[in-house]
Amino acid sequence: MSAERSFALTALRMGAGLLVWAAHFAAVYVYVALVCAHGNPGSEVLGFSTVRVVVMLMTLLALGAQWHILHQALRGRWRKEAQQDGQPFIAWIAAAAAAAGAVAVLWSALPTLWITLCVPP
Amino acid sequence: MTELPNPGLRPRGEYEKLLAIWRPPSGWRFLSAVNNTYIGMFYVGTALLFFILAGILALLMRVQLAVPENQFLGPETYNQFFTMHGTVMMFLFAVPAVEAVGVLLLPNMLGARDLPFPRLSAYAYWAYLVGGLVFFASLFFDVAPDGGWFLYPPLSSIVFSPGVNNDFWLLGIGFIEISAIAGAIELIVGILRTRAPGMKLSQMPVFAWAMLVLGGMIVFAFPAVIVCTLLLELERAFHWPFFMADKGGDPLLWQHLFWFFGHPEVYIIFLPAAGMVSMMVPAMAQTPLMGYRLTVLALLATGFLSFGLWVHHMYTTGIPQLSLSLFTAASMAVAVPSGIQVFAWIATFAAGKARLCTPTLFLLGFLFIFVLGGLTGVMVALVPFDWQAHDSYFVVAHLHYVLIGGMVFPLFAAMYYWIPTVSKRTLSEKLGRWVFALMFIGFNLAFFPMHITGMAGMPRRVYTYAESLGWGPLNLLSTVGAFVLASGVLLFLIDLARNFRPTGAADTGNVWNAGTLEWVPNSVYALRSIPAVNGREPLWERPTLCEEIEAGHWYLPDAPTGRRETIVTHPVDARPQYILQLPGPAWSSFIAALGTAAFFLLLTVKLVVPALAGGIVAIAAIWRWAWTTDPGATHPPADIGGGIRLPVYASGPVSHAWWATVVLLLVMGSMFLSAVFAYLFLWTVSPEYWPAADALPGLGMPALAAALFVASVLCAQYASKRLDRKRASRIAIVAGLVTLLAAFALALRAHGALSPAESGYGAAVYALLSLLGFYVAATATMQLYTLARSWYGLLDAARRVTFDNTRLMWLYTAAQGLLTLALLHGYPRLA
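YS: structure for the whole thing
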């Protein structure tokens, strides 16, 4: 495997959990901004605010991704490859970043459950 | 790797040859030196100079504020002083200082002879020095910026600030950012590709990790500030209304872009300082750092989370409540990784036996001040509290606790700690303790009362206040504290003058018994031989290592190609890949820096023709500089010891130049994303300025432009495969150049009569096209350069690094062209 591919893969694995957090954060921010500027923030699905439902779905998706990364890093291929290469550090960082990323995703998304949506404070 | 690769005595004359190859030029030619030791020391010295200059401005401001209704400084002068104080401290001291320490220390710490692009380091340094000095000199002509260090429009717009003051900020700072980005590219590639053999990622010094994260943050954060400064300059110069609300612009666009840079900037300053602390604490406690993995994780997490905080500077701008809650959550979360590092340092001190000497005192002072600043940071992360404290002296207190605590105290600790690696004498321990005491007491005396003045209602950036407000005693206390702090810095300068004796040949030795490689005795060539590394504290793990390195028993004890060299290793496991022939002293980087500075600074004062002349000089000098940096395989594979023979040339993805180009493309991509954000943001706030689908230009011309971009890509790929056939490859490069230019011309023409000055929409469209045009021009220059090398017989299927770099740039530009067309012609039809 060439130098840059192997490094790109390593870097992606180590930062995957944090990248998922960043993607979730950006997606929620952009979605809320667009709904508040041009959408219908008052709309509902099955009696629940559409915005809250969508944000929660994004959050579940992000948590699912974190779970997958965690599994890969602790028990899956990532761990095996890291051990074969004599670099368990890489799998450790990947797992820890996914765990931290999962907590950060939850922490960022929780206020969605009760904060007023589009009104400036 | 415990067996010595080069046991036995080294050949006679080998050491003298190595020394001669690395010796810097003497006399006035010393200015052409590019070695990291010299450039690093110049860099640190210049950063300190700006620290002192900005500090003097702070003292003058404190004199003004010492008593109510003071007339020592008038309001206009005061505005210029606080703007320059903040700007110089942030852009000319803090970021350059941390990069400077990296340039100075990293090669030795990583076991390299130098950073991979010494002339780039020299260019970045000279550009910074000249640009910074001219920028600062604007104060003496009463044309210094006066809109605050964040230069918010509409105050900074041409309507409310018609003079050239703010142009100095926009062009001067934009230019200095280029220097910072050049430094970041150098550091990223250096850390990833020039580590000692065997130094895996898990064995990298924490400072190297911190600098790697810093490099990544600069790559993604600084483009946002470059783009927003360009937009504001375009608005001021050509009336493109990006920030004019009555024409479909929005002043908040500036705040979003500025703070997308501005908040990570705080961590860009703090993380390297934290990295330094993680190196010093183990040496002072004589025990390895506790929680190495967690510390690395904390650095990475901070790097990511810091990009989710920018809106916490904008809580009072009317952003929807749910969005604010996201940023509050992220702002509080970022305290966690900082806390992890603080606990790691405390645990390391607890596990070892701390020596209470000057660096330790500064480290303890840092912990105390930074933790207090962190606590008030969590307070201002909360929206209701921030509404009360916003724009008050409470925020001034908070930011100084974070920045001085988080960066200046570690930097002073670092100077007392690392100066022995570059000086014949250590700094004075006795004076050092006084320096610390004065700085610590003075700092707290100056800034702690500001929490109270802020809560008492004193706003930032006021040049005076009425006596009846009752802020006088606290302000007087702050002024006294500022002078006590300054006396500490003055004492440090005296200590420096008395004891700092820089030398490229002999240093004081490992005075702290530290475990990392920068403490190996070194000279102008850095390490005599490059060791294999199997742990995080190699000097502790192998007590004989210093002697072995000095005796030339490790790798590359000589200079097999007769030039300056270092070993390029794999970025993950640090296995040796090739010998990099480093360029030596040259005037080209110095002249290129002067030309670049002239271009930007003369443009500020509207001297367009001389500015263009400066730009041409810069391009010519860069051309000259680059001409010798792709030498090809001039030497057969060379033996570095231990039976390892390495090639002396590499192209494609293995080459260090390929890596630098990829990092540069990331910077360019970030600039593009910032411009896309500006376009979409203005649509979000003022969609009424966007044309209806039937009023948009037809799709024929954009489709043709897209086809030409694709054709240009095909030319690049064809040329890449036919480098062995000179004529065919030259025709392909010329065809690619012509199609690229034609594609851009069509993309530009597709918007017909739309004027960029007409509305926010027009301005945003032409901003994206201007950026594309700049990239097309840069790519065309590189294509012409590549053709010239082909013409001179310096390009073929094997000697192809230049072509590979041009091709990467070429493919990227074409891709951005396609994305720009899709956005400009597709999005308004879908929105």
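YS: worth flagging: Chain A has a mean pLDDT of 89.
IM: good catch. Also The first strand of chain A starts at residue 44 and ends at 45.
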